[in-house]
Hints:
Blueprint: H1 7-12, H2 17-28, E1 39-45, E2 48-54, E3 63-68, E4 71-76, E5 97-102, E6 107-115, E7 118-125
Antiparallel strand pairs: 1-2, 2-7, 3-4, 4-5, 6-7
Amino acid sequence: MRHYDLTPLYRATVGFDKVADVMDRVLAAEVSQTSYPPYNIEKTDEDGWRISIAVAGFAEDELSVEVRDRALIVSARKAAEDTQRTYLHRGIATRAFERRFHLADHVRVTGAANADGMLHIDLVREVPEALKPRRIEIARGSKGDVPVSEPRQVN
């Protein structure tokens, strides 16, 4: 795997630390990262998404959905191995897994549901009022109505 040094990016930019961190995280990810379990990410609204993960073979009490440090962590672990059954073919994987999704600012999980072997996790972006764009009204008036600061001499 190629290794990219992002040090010059950190030295030449101000305020782009998050972008550089994301690039660093993507480039540092293992090439052989597992694809188990398969998942979909769909856009459900302008500020809404749904992650659907195939979790066939897992009961609801064997699944865990947690948000920690701006990361959504989905994990599953079988309670106990069924030794009473003899399988001729075992194609449904029920091995333990942990899948992480990095969440952007102001994205929160609104719910999770397990139906028909699929775990659906709903997310929504809720930008606080203080960070939303707002229009500033410009006052109208004559020259005499608008206070003008006196120019100061700077030494």
